[in-house]
Amino acid sequence: MKRALSLLLLLTGLALAPLRAATDGEVEARRTAMELAGAFGNDGFKLRDGVALGTLEAGKPKLVQVNLYTGNEYWFSLAVDGAGKKVSVSVYDETGKKIDAEPYQDGVTAAAGFSPEASGPYFVKIELVEGASAEFCLLYSYK
Length: 143
Prior knowledge:
Elements: H1 2-16, H2 24-41, E1 46-47, E2 52-56, E3 62-68, E4 74-80, E5 84-93, E6 102-106, E7 109-114, E8 120-131, E9 134-142
Antiparallel strand pairs: 1-9, 2-9, 3-8, 4-7, 4-9, 5-8, 6-7
């Protein structure tokens, strides 16, 4: 029994090891992204579990892979903290072809919305267009 308990405690510790406290910039970016995603919530979109956080640098876009399903509509909402000035969001299919998505851009926030024609993997490209290195938060909503 002691051995099983010790193993359980060890595994619990390993599972929690990757957790870290969010930086002030990530908290600010998440708050702003939640405000933007909330606007889509007014149109019936539900916030998807999970979030992408990190640092964006000008000229160094990041790709986030997502699995999307035909019949759903999606919005990807991005925000950065005060160090960033302008961001953009674009979506690509699994072959690298840019998807014609409905854009939204307002300085430190940007979003892209679309309905996939085929289920499968897609890539969301986020980038800092203007400003200094900034903490970001990317959320996505669906209906």
